[in-house]
Amino acid sequence: SANLTFGEFLRIGTKEMVAQMRMIFGIRTMRYVLVGVAALLFTVAGIGTWLAIYHERYSGMTQEEALVLTGGILGLGGIIGTIGGGMFADWLGKRDKRWQLWVPMWGKLIGGPIFILGLLSPNPTTALVCYGIGLVMAAAYLGPSLAVTHSLVPPGMRAMSSAVLFFILNMIGLGLGPFLVGNFSDLLNDASACPIN
After folding, report:
1. pTM of the model
2. How buried is residue 150: exposed, middle or buried, by Cβ count under 10 Å (0-12/13-18/19+)?
3. Distance (Å, whole) CA 137 – CA 16
4. Residue 116 to residues 12, 79, 111, 177, 192, Cα–Cα distance (Å)
5. Could you give the CA distance from residue 137 to residue 131 in angstroms, rounded to a whole number?
């Protein structure tokens, strides 16, 4: 209405947003998806942020080599995994819609151990190959996860479900991941440097 005051608009908008949030978080599958993608991006962003520094310190790479190699591998793996995950989820989902959840799940289950093998490898080349393969598998989550959030809510709430997904990804994954992993690493290094009395 043209006579709607700003306060009334704000009150109505807030009430509608709260109702939509309750509906979104009231869906069990949605909660699983949000927790899963948050945990994945927390890990990937947390490790990926510090990967160049790790290789500079422990693999004999120069700072420039570490930045270019790890950044290139992670960037290329992320692109391939994101696009490939969406394509495979759509293709397999034509036969069984559950593949929209299974593609991210299997990507994490297969990609995680491969990435860990890279971290444990003493050979930088082997490590970079493992990072690339692991990240391709792990990055397959994004397209299918977004599609799942859209399929769980009415068409008029798809933008809101996307907003909630990306809020969780940014706050927990990209925000907390690098911060907590970096601080945890510092804490472990400080503890190992302290002499035992």
Report:
1. 0.79
2. middle
3. 38
4. 49, 20, 9, 17, 22
5. 10
